[in-house]
Structure formats: C-alpha cells, structure tokens
Write a structure and sequence with these properties.
Elements lengths: L1 H15 L21 E3 L2 E5 L4 E11 L3 E12 L6 E14 L4 E10 L4 E5 L3 E4 L2 E4 L2 E5 L4 E5 L7 E3 L11
Length: about 170
C-alpha cells in the first residue's frame, strides 16, 4: 500500500503542475516550474468581463516536466485577471510526466484555492505498470489525501505490482 501512496503522490505532483498552464497560478510548496509553459490550440478566446480564457481544438500544454492534452481547456481568473482560480480540461484528457506517470479521463477540474483536483469520466492513472481507476478520483493537496470512488456499475480497481528487490551477493 505504501507503493500505491507514493505512486498517487506522483500523480498529485503531475496534476498540481497543471497550475503552470496559466500565469500567476500558485506553485507546489514554493517550487516554480522550470522554463516556459507552451499552450497550443486551434482557437483561444479570452473574456475579461467573464474572467475566462478558453482554448479549444487539439489543446496541448507543455512544460519541461509534463504534457496535458484535451479537446478544451478553460481557465477562470480572479477579479483582477492576475491569478487562476480554476482550470478545467474537457474531452480526451491525457496527462503525462517525464517520470512515466500517465493519467487519462474525460474531465479534470483543478480548484486552485481549495488545492483540489477532481478527475471524472473513467479516470485511470498509471506508473510503472501499476494502475488505479474508478468513476471519480479526487486529490486533496492540503490534506495529502486521495479518494478513488466507484458507483453501482463501475468499481474501484487498483493493480499493484510488487517492487523487485535487487539480488544480494552471497
């Protein structure tokens, strides 16, 4: 179970890193993302009145450490349009980190002030062959807690492989 907790921690870092997709979003424990974030899409619409930026069509957001792809990404800002309050990735969401962690879902919602991410739509996270899936995965950063939920038709499934210990010389 300790290995699963460590693996989910990697997922937390991956998802928390999505705050770098928009300027001025808070970073994890004071760590700033290394290098620039590049977002490409077929279309970008920004509404200062609605405090929102919407990327649509083959959206790809990249940093040195991770890549997020989705059909659509929406960023909601504070009153001054200086800080991101919420990020939503919708449709064919795929998140991958340079360490091999991969997450897929249909929707990912990052509530920045609450430091919470909700993955919905058959979310599945994997690293080194280990996987966890369910109906909803919720990550609570402040509490260092993760909840994977099922429903009547889909149960939580975790597949965890034992870590191989190096052979010792005799």
């Amino acid at each position: 179970m300790t290995r699963l907790a460590g693996w989910v921690g990697c997922v937390l870092l991956l998802l928390y890193g999505t705050s770098a997709l928009a300027a001025q979003a808070p970073s994890l424990k004071g760590r700033e993302p290394e290098g620039p974030t590049t977002v490409t899409a077929d279309r970008l619409e920004v509404s200062r009145k609605e405090r929102r930026a919407i990327y649509t069509g083959n959206v790809v957001a990249k940093t040195a450490d991770f890549t997020v792809t989705a059909d659509r990404m929406e960023f909601t800002f504070d009153e001054k349009m200086e800080a991101v309050e919420r990020m939503v990735a919708i449709g064919n969401v795929q998140i991958s980190r340079s360490d091999g962690t991969k997450v897929v879902s249909e929707r990912a919602i990052y509530y920045i002030p609450q430091e919470k991410v909700v993955l919905e739509g058959h979310p599945r996270a994997s690293q080194e062959g280990n996987t966890v899936s369910g109906t909803r995965i919720t990550l609570y950063f402040k509490e260092d807690r993760q909840v994977v939920e099922g429903d009547g038709s889909e149960r939580v499934t975790a597949v965890i492989y034992p870590k191989r210990q190096p052979r010792q010389a005799r």
